Amino acid sequence: MATATTDLDPHDLTRISIRLGQLLMQHGAESALIAELSRRIGRALGLDEVHASINANSISITSVTNGHCITTVRFCRDHGIHFGVIAELQHLVVMAEKQVLDAASILRRLERLNKNRYNRWLVLVMVALSCAAFSGLAGGDLKVALMTFFATACGMLVRQEIGHRHFNPLLNFAATAFVTTAAAAPAQYFEFGNQPTLVMACSVLMLVPGVPLINAASDMVKGYVHVGLARWAMASLLTLATSIGIVMAMNLFGLWAWL
User: Fold this and answer.
1) Residue spans per domain, the chain
2) Backbone angles phi, psi at 64, to 5 degrees
3) How far apart are CA 88 and CA 83, in angstroms?
4) How far is it, in rounded angstroms, from Cα 30 to Cα 78?
5) Which of 186, 198, 208, 251 is deepest in the core (most CB within 10 A)?
6) What do you get for the CA distance between the two ends of the chain, in Å?
7) Residues 111-115: contacts with CB within 8 Å, 24+ apart?
8) 6-65 residue pLDDT tens
9) Which of 88, 84, 78, 83 minimizes the C-alpha distance to 58?
10) Cβ-count burial of 101 within 10 angstroms (0-12 exposed, 13-18 middle, 19+ buried)?
11) What is d(CA 40, CA 181) in angstroms, rounded to the nearest whole number?
12) Residue 2 — very low, low, confident or very high, per pLDDT cuts 50/70/90?
């Protein structure tokens, strides 16, 4: 493999490798991809060997250069799923391997990495539209789709506000499920549309933790069993919190008769 010329010492190169792995882990990448890209960028920048160890909430990198080992560990706080960041980091690795960028340039790009997200109102509208589309696929008419859009938008607004204030994700999911189910209650009270029960069923689909569950299965299949189990446990807790919020709203508004 070709290596890029650099004036940085092995300690700095190791920091670049683990910083890239940390960013990948914080934004929802699977463990095998984290380990592979951390190893590839380290070797592309001139390290002889790079070994990555992935844990549930941390990553450790050991680099080998001229027979000397350097090990560093970073804690990885969850920053939410952001595939744009993951794609940009993959692009950086490819440019390092092709010697388009040297270590100093990559370090600068990592520091000013674009972590901007889509406009919150655009996200709200698109999520509400997707849930409304699910209600249509399930056989609901236009009235059911409109009510699903409204209930999902109410829940998504609560989810964004709670998330912006950095509350515990379990509390966020429970509160969002409660508000979404409550917003869907009028459709069943007044028999809005041809299948009013679809409103509640489809509006809470936005709370399905799809990416964590997929990553959990992928990690376990690829040998990162302990990380996969941790992710599966968190996804299960999010599902439990969602169920609690739904059941609380159903009990409060007496929605059991429509099941």
Assistant:
1) 10-111, 120-258
2) -125, 125
3) 9
4) 13
5) 198
6) 61
7) 113/23, 113/85, 113/88, 113/89, 114/84, 114/85, 114/88, 115/79, 115/82, 115/85
8) 567 888 899 999 999 999 998 888 999 999 999 999 999 888 889 999 988 889 999 998
9) 78
10) buried
11) 47
12) very low
Six-digit token string for 45: 């920048």
**The pair of three-digit structure tokens given for residue 8, joined into one six-digit string:** 């940085």
Integer-rounded Cα Rg, in Å, for the chain is 23
How many residues make up the chain in this entry?
A: 259
C-alpha–C-alpha distance, residues 259 and 250, integer Å: 10
Task: Write the single-letter amino acid at 244.
Answer: I
**Distance, CA of 91 to CA of 97 (rounded, Å):** 10
Beta carbons of 45 and 106 less than 8 angstroms apart: yes
Under 8 Å CB-to-CB from 121, ≥6 apart: which residues? Answer: none
Q: pLDDT tens digits for 149-204?
A: 999 999 999 999 998 888 889 999 999 999 999 998 888 877 877 888 888 889 99
Answer for the pair 4, 103: CB distance below 8 angstroms, yes or no. Answer: yes
Cβ–Cβ < 8 Å for 45, 28: no
For residue 8, the one-letter residue type is L
* Tokens representing residue 29 in the block: 């990448």
Extended strands (E) in the chain: 49-54, 58-65, 68-75
